[in-house]
DNA sequence: ACACGTTACGGCAACCGTAAGGATT
DNA sequence: AATCCTTACGGTTGCCGTAACGTGT
């Protein structure tokens, strides 16, 4: 067994590439850094860092150990945050983090002393960060119900068809659902929010044209639609700005418009009131239309 | 920062429900256990355990901390296994772990000194365990390509239709693919291997009847088919035994039979030769038909 | 000589186990 | 009084920083 502090020293070394620099960062004396690393290397029975006069570097073993080390200190950090009640790290998939969540975060900042941090990534990556204790709460449009987590449907976002301004459908107040069948839709890559939506609501029959992902697939899809490459289906919130500005035309779908569940997911923590739980409750109460966990 | 040993002591306490018992398990003296816990509680500034004359129990805070504590000691344990080269923990989704993997594990035991441990669970749970450093390698029929992991297609399993012995199709050497459309298939719950298969190869149009999951959905599906409730689609390996015994009838599909990719997934570890990498290479070389990572 | 990391060493505090001290039943 | 956990205490060891020491440029 080992002191976590030594692991932190290793991380400082890995990040700074030098014992003296690592000593400065950790506030330790430089010989102590030597000692910490030596202990760690002894405990693992392996050389982690290639000592070199001009910049020390990680050995292959050191590189292999790195994610484990990061996990160790981060887990401890997040465990402390459970009780110090002043910090929440939120993870959100791109569409939600970019468009939907921002006003809620602003409001939460006003009513709470919690220090908020938002991490945006794709769905599987966010799920991974949740598992690895990198984030305390996740807000996503997708969740496989794994054990150990509490998932709640936060709200249901309406989906709208977006078309360029010169499209025959432009200006329509609504379109029948059956018109969607057989249409070519942009942005259907697997793994992206848009891709999953298309898959789910149109099934295999709707052939989709791929659009290479830029920074956040919805941005790419919007640009492609604007350029006249085709049409697509997105969350209404994601298109609000362009719709108001008249850059794109967003059309609701008639007869039972498709809605996408948005989940709030946090680690189960029994009856203890964690900051993550407070934040979750805040989100749920901001919205009257909330439903219980599945 | 904290000694990991103290966290381990907390886990022993949580598991045993008493300071004396925890002392026995950890090999420490009983007052030392008291001290370890006190330090940990001081570091987190919270009470973790309700001291009680008749069995000490976790406080709500203790219960919340428990998964973090488990993650800490397990991560350290797996990090050590990276270098001690004698232990591999393998995770597999149910079908693969139960049917497909066993002969390979037996062969690997004969050629390697590694101590093997196999954990079987559903796909999302295995993915979670991989993220949390609970397992070193995962073998699954599904993978979203998340960063930090190396996924390789190990083999491609053929899918066969299974029908009861008194079914009109029974005894056929093969059936055309188009016959499958419109059939009712058993075992299509979301999240299970069978469910995903049906979804993928038949799409939304094939209405599926749910079968409640028993221990491992394929077992349940086989029983249901045997009982005459319907037919289903499973990996050929999963049905080999019953097919030979004449308990069920397995029929290949003509014209491009559907095949399911099986992935081997491990944490990326640079150039260091981990036990997990050795095992992965063993699996891949056991099979000539292997393909490169996606 | 200069910058790097390592070794040597002295002092302080951490940390163990043993033994005695409450508290609850 | 029988268990439980906590406190007290002494000896050992761990672990820090300072200072002196190799080593490569």
First CA to last CA of chain A: what distance?
Answer: 40 Å
The dominant shape of chain A is elongated
Main β-sheet description of chain A: 7 strands, mixed
Structural class of chain A: alpha/beta
Work out the oligomeric state of the chains in this entry: homodimer
Arithmetic mean of pLDDT of chain A: 85
By DSSP, the count of extended strands of chain A is 11
**What percentage of residues of chain A falls in helices of 4 or more residues?**
40-55%
Enumerate how many helices of chain A there are, as a single number: 11
Q: Tags for this entry?
A:
homodimer, 294 residues, alpha/beta, 7-stranded mixed sheet, two-stranded antiparallel ribbon, 11 helices, elongated, disordered C terminus, DNA-binding
Helices and strands in order:
The structure is a homodimer of 294-residue chains.
Chain A lengths: L3 H13 L2 H8 L3 H15 L4 E2 L6 E2 L1 H25 L2 E7 H7 L1 H10 L3 E7 L1 H9 L5 E4 L8 E15 L21 E2 L6 H10 L5 E2 L7 H10 L5 E4 H10 L3 E3 L7 E9 L7 H11 L9
Parallel strand pairs in A: 3-4, 3-5, 7-8
Antiparallel strand pairs in A: 1-2, 5-11, 6-9, 6-10, 6-11
The first copy, chain A, binds a DNA duplex (25 and 25 nucleotides) through helix 3.
Description:
The structure is a homodimer of 294-residue chains. In chain A, 44% of the residues lie in helices and 19% in strands. The first copy, chain A, has 294 residues and is an alpha/beta fold. In chain A, strands 3, 4, 5, 6, 9, 10 and 11 form a 7-stranded mixed sheet that branches. A two-stranded antiparallel ribbon of chain A has the order 1-2. In chain A, a hairpin with a 6-residue loop joins strand 1 and strand 2. In chain A, helix 1 (4-16) crosses helix 2. The first copy, chain A, is elongated. Chain A binds a DNA duplex (25 and 25 nucleotides) through residues 18-20, 28-35, 38-39, 51-56.
